[in-house]
């Protein structure tokens, strides 16, 4: 039967949508027509489009992909950049690593292996409410190197486990939330972004951070160098934060036998590892080995990942149609590549250097450790204004890194803390990363409690990562 094509993209016309459009176009128009001090017309126009794009990613007058396509088109039509340069982001290997990593997450969810890992941890270690929390957090950490989307990992794998366990205890949103659900939701959420911070492949924008660090600080953030800096503070947060949450959001239930019984039932229902799961495990072990040994064999991480994806297709773990159905991966490819291109152009045209010089005024004359603490804290708390960690990284990481270097911070000591807090800055709000709305909308935690506890956890993160972390980085020779 013939069908009539109906466009799915509608321009919002509500008053709220109007304000979102004004938020996007207002600052862009000011920057476009009122030159920023020290910038040439081309630099100023590129900055205007970039700022408008970042604001659009936060305000979302249109879907993210649509906003970025509009920006990309305007850059070419206005003559700000040559058309070939505008499209150059799609040839960036970091973009393809992120794209491939999203497809890995599809394999973990489609085969059910992610859920299996979570239930295995609960069955083995879920002896008290706190150890149930640790079990869920541990499952997230084990999956983090392979599922680089905290939305897919937290919202798609870990949250359903936490929600199911809460339901077993009769803990539902509302009067019974404090029985178990509030505690498990908060533990799961705060474990997700901490796990993302620990691994180069734990969050979609982490490889982009490594690229920025190579271009601006001239340091290589390999998979092993990243984990060597994050392992001690990350594990310390893994141990500390659930314990603190068990005090601040104390569960009313003490007997956790029902959680173990649920895990046992679910694992029995799943049965032994399927052929697809066995192939997936073998392939991902090979991919991880390839990432870890990349300094030895010289194959870029992107092509190690593409080799793994090819093996997933050849062995039938996923079909090509499965990959075509993974809308998040294709969406990320469309909007992420132009963002990378704009960030690269801002750096190549000297805009980042000019803006970071103005930021350097705030840290001039201070000892570099104090300057680093001030910059990292500012970088963390400005995330109250962002709803995307990727948008935050693209907009601010290059400038803050350049400012830290200008303040005399050793290159690795500048690049790594800002990299880690590109993930840890998600702690404070219920919208700061893709998984946050999933957990918050479950209804177990009131917004006031979410923000209050999130702010306290952010202070804990700063203390651990810039306290114990700095000492550890000195021990392993990162500065």
Structure description:
- By secondary structure, the chain is mostly helical.
- The chain folds into two domains: 26-81, no CATH class; 112-271 and 350-475, no CATH class.
- Helices cover 72% and strands 0% of the residues.
- It is built from 23 helices and no strands.
- The chain is globular.
- Mean pLDDT is 83; it is low at 1-13.
List keywords for this structure.
disordered N terminus; mainly alpha; 23 helices; 479 residues; 2 domains; globular
**Percentage of residues in helical conformation:** over 70%
Q: What radius of gyration results from the CA coordinates?
A: 23 Å
Average pLDDT works out at 83
Which band does the percent of strand residues land in?
under 5%
Counting helices, strands and paired strands, the structural category is: mainly alpha
Count of strand segments: 0
Biggest sheet, open or closed, and with what strands and sense? none
User: Termini separation (Å)?
Assistant: 67 Å
* Shape category: globular
Order of helices and strands: HHHHHHHHHHHHHHHHHHHHHHH
Number of helices: 23
Unreliable spans are 1-13
What is the domain tally? Answer: 2
In short:
This protein has 479 residues and is mainly alpha-helical. It has 23 helices and no strands. Helix 2 packs across helix 20.
